[in-house]
Protein: DUF5403 family protein
Amino acid sequence: MASVDPDLDRIVAHLPQVKTEINRELSQRASRVRAVVNAHRDSGDLAGSLDVETSTVDSTVSIADPAVVSINYGHWTAGGTTYVEGIHAIEAGLT
Structure:
């Protein structure tokens, strides 16, 4: 009877071809997020908080600006009279 190596996920994650594809995908996703962020630049703080990290098997694109939720999804201005649409940069990295 066939069996599956219990470490198969670890074996596959470390294959050179898999790492290459993960890095290619990360690069494309990071480029899409950067494009959206740069197109809606106000102070530059959001773009400055964008970080792309690659470890042995994981890769992430993150935005650490404290206002990222309001900027990404939208918000009402301080007076509550005007709604500012979000830029949806996070979603750009998911597609």
